[in-house]
Amino acid sequence: MHELSRCKSLIEQIQNSISEYAEYKIKTITVLVGELSQIDLDEFVELFPLAAKGTFVEKAELIVKKDPAKYSCANCSQLCTPKGSDLYCTFCQSSQLTLISGTEFMLDSIELTQ
After folding, report:
1. Is the pLDDT of residue 105 over 70?
2. What is the sign of the dihedral through the CA atoms of 5, 6, 10 and 13?
3. The pTM is what?
4. Domain segments of the chain as ranges
């Protein structure tokens, strides 16, 4: 049930973000989820309507943007997105990679309507 607490936390974050726009309704909520975030996306998407029921986001559409893991190569200084479990630079094949992004779970945007 970790995903349910993530849903509730997201709703709280949205409420804090739009408190000065009380006259508007939320049309869409977009979240950015990194591929290494260890979020069960299916469960999160399934539980969001349950967490949103009876709240100001109940009728909002949830949009999930998946963000691939991105690495910086110490050898060639390129940013790359290796596929699968092979963590090698896609440019020079070096294994000297530093994770730059892909672990995030964050509110990306909120679309409001009157």
Report:
1. yes
2. positive
3. 0.87
4. 2-68+102-113
d(CA 100, CA 21): 34
User: Is pLDDT above 60 for 106?
Assistant: yes
Q: For 2-68+102-113, which CATH class?
A: alpha beta
Q: What is the mean pLDDT of residues 82-105?
A: 94
Give the per-residue SS3 of the chain. Answer: CHHHHHHHHHHHHHHHHCHHHCCCEEEEEEEEEECCCCCCHHHHHHHHHHHHCCCCCCCCEEEEEEECCEEEECCCCCEECCCCCCCCCCCCCCCCEEEEECCCEEEEEEEEEC
- Which single residue is written with the structure tokens 């949830």? 62
Place of tokens 């990194």: 34
